[in-house]
Amino acid sequence: MTGLNPICAILIENCRIFFLTSSYLEPSEYLLIEWSGFTLPRPSVGMELSVCSDHRKLNNCLWNSLMHVLTVLDHPNPASFSAAVAQQFMDGAKAAGHSVELADLHAEGFDPLWSMADIDGDRHAATSADVAKEQARIDRADAICLVFPLFWWGMPSMTKGWIDRVWTWGWAYDQLGDPEQSLQRPRSGVLLIPAGARSDEMENEGYLAALETAWIKGTFGYFGFSPRKLEVLYGSTGSLKRRQSLLDKSYQTGLTLAPPQRAK
Fold it and tell me: How far is CA 14 from CA 18, 24, 53, 149, in A?
Protein backbone atom coordinates (compact mmCIF):
# COMPACT_ATOMS: atom_id res chain seq x y z
CA MET A 1 0.00 0.00 0.00
CA THR A 2 3.04 2.26 0.06
CA GLY A 3 2.66 5.42 -1.99
CA LEU A 4 -1.13 5.41 -2.10
CA ASN A 5 -3.10 8.21 -0.56
CA PRO A 6 -6.72 7.07 -0.91
CA ILE A 7 -9.57 9.32 0.08
CA CYS A 8 -11.88 6.45 0.92
CA ALA A 9 -12.47 2.76 0.40
CA ILE A 10 -15.49 1.62 -1.54
CA LEU A 11 -17.18 -1.62 -2.42
CA ILE A 12 -18.66 -2.28 -5.83
CA GLU A 13 -21.58 -4.65 -5.55
CA ASN A 14 -24.17 -5.16 -8.26
CA CYS A 15 -22.99 -1.97 -9.95
CA ARG A 16 -23.67 0.10 -6.82
CA ILE A 17 -20.95 1.99 -5.01
CA PHE A 18 -20.94 1.93 -1.20
CA PHE A 19 -18.67 3.73 1.26
CA LEU A 20 -17.23 1.31 3.79
CA THR A 21 -14.45 2.79 5.85
CA SER A 22 -11.62 5.29 5.74
CA SER A 23 -9.12 2.57 6.68
CA TYR A 24 -6.84 0.71 4.35
CA LEU A 25 -8.35 -2.58 3.20
CA GLU A 26 -7.12 -5.52 1.15
CA PRO A 27 -7.03 -4.51 -2.54
CA SER A 28 -8.37 -7.96 -3.46
CA GLU A 29 -11.64 -7.09 -1.74
CA TYR A 30 -11.99 -3.36 -2.19
CA LEU A 31 -10.96 -0.66 -4.60
CA LEU A 32 -8.89 2.21 -3.26
CA ILE A 33 -9.20 5.48 -5.12
CA GLU A 34 -6.42 8.05 -5.22
CA TRP A 35 -7.36 11.56 -6.28
CA SER A 36 -4.79 14.00 -7.61
CA GLY A 37 -5.54 17.57 -6.66
CA PHE A 38 -9.19 17.06 -5.79
CA THR A 39 -10.89 16.57 -2.45
CA LEU A 40 -13.59 13.98 -1.89
CA PRO A 41 -15.44 14.47 1.42
CA ARG A 42 -15.92 11.49 3.67
CA PRO A 43 -19.53 10.30 3.66
CA SER A 44 -21.18 8.27 6.37
CA VAL A 45 -20.45 4.57 6.59
CA GLY A 46 -22.94 2.67 4.49
CA MET A 47 -23.92 5.64 2.32
CA GLU A 48 -24.65 4.75 -1.28
CA LEU A 49 -22.64 7.10 -3.45
CA SER A 50 -24.02 6.52 -6.94
CA VAL A 51 -24.99 3.94 -9.49
CA CYS A 52 -22.52 2.93 -12.22
CA SER A 53 -23.34 0.67 -15.12
CA ASP A 54 -19.67 0.55 -16.05
CA HIS A 55 -16.92 0.18 -13.44
CA ARG A 56 -14.55 2.06 -15.74
CA LYS A 57 -16.69 5.14 -15.19
CA LEU A 58 -16.14 4.97 -11.45
CA ASN A 59 -14.20 8.23 -11.21
CA ASN A 60 -16.92 10.13 -13.02
CA CYS A 61 -19.61 8.60 -10.83
CA LEU A 62 -17.83 9.64 -7.65
CA TRP A 63 -16.92 13.07 -9.00
CA ASN A 64 -20.50 13.77 -9.98
CA SER A 65 -21.96 12.36 -6.77
CA LEU A 66 -20.06 13.86 -3.88
CA MET A 67 -18.75 17.32 -3.18
CA HIS A 68 -17.91 19.35 -0.12
CA VAL A 69 -19.94 22.55 -0.46
CA LEU A 70 -19.00 25.80 1.28
CA THR A 71 -21.77 28.36 1.72
CA VAL A 72 -20.70 31.90 2.57
CA LEU A 73 -23.48 33.99 4.11
CA ASP A 74 -23.42 37.76 4.47
CA HIS A 75 -26.28 39.16 6.53
CA PRO A 76 -26.22 40.50 10.11
CA ASN A 77 -29.71 39.16 10.92
CA PRO A 78 -29.82 35.38 11.54
CA ALA A 79 -33.58 35.49 10.84
CA SER A 80 -33.13 37.23 7.47
CA PHE A 81 -34.41 35.96 4.15
CA SER A 82 -30.78 35.60 3.03
CA ALA A 83 -30.12 33.24 5.95
CA ALA A 84 -33.19 31.21 4.96
CA VAL A 85 -31.90 31.05 1.37
CA ALA A 86 -28.52 29.77 2.58
CA GLN A 87 -30.19 27.11 4.72
CA GLN A 88 -32.42 25.94 1.89
CA PHE A 89 -29.44 25.72 -0.47
CA MET A 90 -27.51 23.65 2.05
CA ASP A 91 -30.52 21.41 2.68
CA GLY A 92 -30.72 20.74 -1.05
CA ALA A 93 -27.01 20.00 -1.25
CA LYS A 94 -27.26 17.58 1.68
CA ALA A 95 -30.24 15.87 0.07
CA ALA A 96 -28.03 15.28 -2.98
CA GLY A 97 -25.46 13.55 -0.75
CA HIS A 98 -22.95 16.40 -0.48
CA SER A 99 -21.31 17.52 2.75
CA VAL A 100 -21.84 21.16 3.64
CA GLU A 101 -20.09 23.88 5.61
CA LEU A 102 -21.36 27.34 6.51
CA ALA A 103 -19.25 30.47 6.83
CA ASP A 104 -21.57 32.97 8.52
CA LEU A 105 -19.38 36.03 8.25
CA HIS A 106 -21.33 38.26 10.64
CA ALA A 107 -21.94 35.62 13.29
CA GLU A 108 -18.25 34.71 13.23
CA GLY A 109 -17.09 38.31 13.38
CA PHE A 110 -15.00 38.33 10.21
CA ASP A 111 -13.16 41.63 9.75
CA PRO A 112 -13.76 42.86 6.18
CA LEU A 113 -11.44 45.86 6.46
CA TRP A 114 -8.59 45.65 3.96
CA SER A 115 -5.58 47.19 5.66
CA MET A 116 -1.82 47.75 5.47
CA ALA A 117 -1.41 44.47 7.35
CA ASP A 118 -2.94 42.68 4.36
CA ILE A 119 -0.68 44.55 1.93
CA ASP A 120 2.40 43.75 4.01
CA GLY A 121 1.27 40.14 4.22
CA ASP A 122 1.09 39.92 0.43
CA ARG A 123 4.57 41.40 0.12
CA HIS A 124 6.15 39.01 2.61
CA ALA A 125 3.97 35.92 1.99
CA ALA A 126 2.64 36.16 5.56
CA THR A 127 -1.03 35.33 5.88
CA SER A 128 -3.00 36.54 8.91
CA ALA A 129 -4.78 33.94 11.01
CA ASP A 130 -8.32 34.97 10.04
CA VAL A 131 -7.50 34.94 6.33
CA ALA A 132 -5.71 31.59 6.65
CA LYS A 133 -8.85 30.16 8.27
CA GLU A 134 -11.00 31.23 5.33
CA GLN A 135 -8.48 29.97 2.79
CA ALA A 136 -8.45 26.58 4.53
CA ARG A 137 -12.23 26.46 4.13
CA ILE A 138 -11.88 27.17 0.45
CA ASP A 139 -9.11 24.58 0.10
CA ARG A 140 -11.38 21.79 1.28
CA ALA A 141 -14.38 22.90 -0.79
CA ASP A 142 -15.34 21.50 -4.19
CA ALA A 143 -18.14 24.01 -4.64
CA ILE A 144 -18.81 27.45 -3.19
CA CYS A 145 -22.08 29.33 -2.87
CA LEU A 146 -22.16 33.00 -1.88
CA VAL A 147 -25.42 34.33 -0.42
CA PHE A 148 -25.87 38.07 0.12
CA PRO A 149 -28.60 40.64 -0.58
CA LEU A 150 -28.20 42.95 -3.55
CA PHE A 151 -26.95 46.19 -2.01
CA TRP A 152 -27.01 49.32 -4.20
CA TRP A 153 -26.61 47.08 -7.26
CA GLY A 154 -23.56 45.44 -5.78
CA MET A 155 -22.13 43.43 -2.88
CA PRO A 156 -22.52 44.42 0.77
CA SER A 157 -19.28 45.52 2.41
CA MET A 158 -18.79 42.25 4.32
CA THR A 159 -18.78 40.14 1.14
CA LYS A 160 -16.55 42.62 -0.69
CA GLY A 161 -14.10 42.67 2.21
CA TRP A 162 -14.10 38.85 2.42
CA ILE A 163 -13.21 38.68 -1.27
CA ASP A 164 -10.59 41.44 -1.04
CA ARG A 165 -8.83 39.93 1.96
CA VAL A 166 -9.17 36.19 1.36
CA TRP A 167 -8.75 35.70 -2.39
CA THR A 168 -5.26 37.15 -2.45
CA TRP A 169 -2.77 37.69 -5.23
CA GLY A 170 -0.32 34.79 -5.33
CA TRP A 171 -2.86 32.44 -3.75
CA ALA A 172 -5.99 32.84 -5.86
CA TYR A 173 -4.53 34.41 -8.99
CA ASP A 174 -1.34 35.82 -10.49
CA GLN A 175 -2.04 38.69 -12.84
CA LEU A 176 1.65 39.07 -13.67
CA GLY A 177 1.79 35.55 -15.09
CA ASP A 178 -1.48 34.85 -16.87
CA PRO A 179 -4.33 37.24 -16.01
CA GLU A 180 -6.88 34.69 -17.22
CA GLN A 181 -5.48 31.75 -15.25
CA SER A 182 -6.60 31.07 -11.69
CA LEU A 183 -4.13 29.52 -9.28
CA GLN A 184 -6.99 27.60 -7.69
CA ARG A 185 -8.33 24.21 -8.79
CA PRO A 186 -11.73 24.25 -10.50
CA ARG A 187 -14.73 24.64 -8.22
CA SER A 188 -18.41 24.89 -8.95
CA GLY A 189 -19.60 28.39 -8.03
CA VAL A 190 -23.05 29.83 -7.39
CA LEU A 191 -24.20 33.28 -6.30
CA LEU A 192 -27.67 33.37 -4.72
CA ILE A 193 -28.65 37.03 -4.47
CA PRO A 194 -31.95 38.09 -2.88
CA ALA A 195 -33.12 41.30 -4.53
CA GLY A 196 -36.20 43.44 -4.05
CA ALA A 197 -36.08 44.57 -7.67
CA ARG A 198 -38.13 43.03 -10.48
CA SER A 199 -36.43 41.03 -13.23
CA ASP A 200 -37.64 43.36 -16.00
CA GLU A 201 -36.28 46.37 -14.11
CA MET A 202 -32.82 44.84 -13.78
CA GLU A 203 -32.70 43.55 -17.33
CA ASN A 204 -34.09 46.62 -19.09
CA GLU A 205 -31.85 49.05 -17.23
CA GLY A 206 -28.72 46.94 -17.80
CA TYR A 207 -28.08 46.10 -14.15
CA LEU A 208 -28.13 42.32 -14.68
CA ALA A 209 -25.70 42.50 -17.60
CA ALA A 210 -23.37 44.66 -15.51
CA LEU A 211 -23.40 42.14 -12.65
CA GLU A 212 -22.82 39.23 -15.03
CA THR A 213 -19.81 41.03 -16.52
CA ALA A 214 -18.30 42.13 -13.20
CA TRP A 215 -18.89 38.96 -11.19
CA ILE A 216 -19.31 36.00 -13.55
CA LYS A 217 -17.01 37.01 -16.39
CA GLY A 218 -14.67 38.92 -14.09
CA THR A 219 -14.10 38.22 -10.40
CA PHE A 220 -15.11 34.60 -10.08
CA GLY A 221 -13.39 33.58 -13.28
CA TYR A 222 -10.10 34.61 -11.71
CA PHE A 223 -10.95 32.40 -8.76
CA GLY A 224 -11.40 29.23 -10.83
CA PHE A 225 -15.17 28.89 -10.49
CA SER A 226 -16.16 26.53 -13.28
CA PRO A 227 -19.03 26.27 -13.91
CA ARG A 228 -20.30 29.47 -12.31
CA LYS A 229 -23.69 31.11 -12.35
CA LEU A 230 -25.56 34.06 -10.92
CA GLU A 231 -29.05 33.43 -9.55
CA VAL A 232 -30.78 36.71 -8.69
CA LEU A 233 -33.78 35.99 -6.47
CA TYR A 234 -36.06 38.74 -7.74
CA GLY A 235 -38.92 40.01 -5.61
CA SER A 236 -37.50 38.71 -2.34
CA THR A 237 -39.43 41.38 -0.42
CA GLY A 238 -42.70 40.34 -2.05
CA SER A 239 -45.56 38.10 -0.98
CA LEU A 240 -45.17 34.98 1.14
CA LYS A 241 -45.94 32.89 -1.94
CA ARG A 242 -43.21 34.62 -3.90
CA ARG A 243 -40.68 34.24 -1.11
CA GLN A 244 -41.51 30.56 -0.72
CA SER A 245 -40.95 30.02 -4.44
CA LEU A 246 -37.51 31.62 -4.10
CA LEU A 247 -36.68 29.36 -1.16
CA ASP A 248 -37.77 26.36 -3.24
CA LYS A 249 -35.50 27.57 -6.04
CA SER A 250 -32.60 27.84 -3.59
CA TYR A 251 -33.20 24.25 -2.45
CA GLN A 252 -33.25 23.03 -6.05
CA THR A 253 -30.04 24.91 -6.79
CA GLY A 254 -28.30 22.97 -4.02
CA LEU A 255 -29.94 19.70 -5.04
CA THR A 256 -28.82 20.01 -8.68
CA LEU A 257 -25.44 21.62 -8.07
CA ALA A 258 -23.12 20.84 -10.99
CA PRO A 259 -19.68 19.32 -10.35
CA PRO A 260 -16.51 21.29 -11.11
CA GLN A 261 -15.31 21.26 -14.68
CA ARG A 262 -11.74 20.02 -14.70
CA ALA A 263 -9.22 21.65 -17.02
CA LYS A 264 -8.78 19.82 -20.29
Answer: 11, 22, 9, 47
Check whether 133 has a pLDDT greater than 50.
yes
Amino acid in the structure at residue 148: F
* pLDDT confidence of residue 65: 63
Query: Alpha carbon 20 to chain centroid distance?
Result: 26
Q: What are phi and psi of 58, to 5 degrees?
A: -55, -45
Dist CA 184 CA 5 (whole Å)? 21
Collapse the DSSP code of 228 into the 3-class scheme (helix H, G, I; strand E, B; otherwise coil) and give the result.
strand
Query: Residue 158: pLDDT band by 50, 70, 90 thresholds?
Result: very high
* DSSP states of 162-205: HHHHHS-BTTTB-TTT-TT-BSSPPEEEEEEEEESS-HHHHHHT
pLDDT band at 149 (very low <50, low <70, confident <90, very high): very high
Task: Give the helix ranges, DSSP H, for 8-145.
Answer: 58-65, 81-95, 116-123, 129-139
Q: Where are the domains of the chain?
A: 6-65, 68-255
Asked if residue 41 has a cis previous peptide bond (ω within 30° of 0), the answer is no
How many angstroms separate the CA atoms of 17 and 43, rounded? Answer: 12
Is the CATH number of domain 68-255 3.40.50.150?
no
> What are the beta bridge partners of residue 181?
none
Of 36-40, 120-124, 188-192, minimum mean pLDDT range:
36-40
Q: Which among 85, 66, 86 has a CA at the least distance from the CA of 17?
A: 66
Sign of CA dihedral 165, 169, 175, 178: negative
